[in-house]
Amino acid sequence: METNAIHQQATQGLEPIISPEALVEHWQGHRRLTRKTIEAFPEDKLFSYSVGGMRPMAGLALEIMDISEDGITGIATGEWKPVAELDHATEKVKFNSKTELLDHWDQITVQINQVWHQIPQQRFQEVDLAFGAYEGKIIDLLLYFIDNEIHHRAQGYVYLRTLGIEPPAFWNRF
Fold first, then answer.
1. Which of 3, 10, 165, 166 fits a disulfide with 160 by CB distance 3.0 to 4.6 angstroms?
2. 129 in helix, strand or coil?
């Protein structure tokens, strides 16, 4: 018997390490924390303040929103926007206020929750070419979305600290 067949027999009927419900809650927990990070910025600094040539937090948030919004659609449908069509360059920040940015953030949160439950569990093991540039299993792409958000939120933490503002507790994702 081949090793793959033995593995399949041994794991048949076992529950996954993390359920789809727990995974989306984990993702949404990170999104709640990133939202708190955005909220902590003074209005004028959100769109203009940067360190070391990095994008302002609004530009970083836009990238997170683009990946989340277009990513959940791609996961659900297999249809992905090309990376060139994503809007997250600093010069394309399309919001004029923190309120507008956070309102769009909240709309994406609702979209994720609505679409998530339409995704069959086996979809997470399928391979796609996300955004025309990143090939991988859906589960790996989703973990990348989360990692990318954590990375950019950390940049926001650095900005807040250099402004003398205490960032939200990194462990508080409620």
1. 165
2. strand
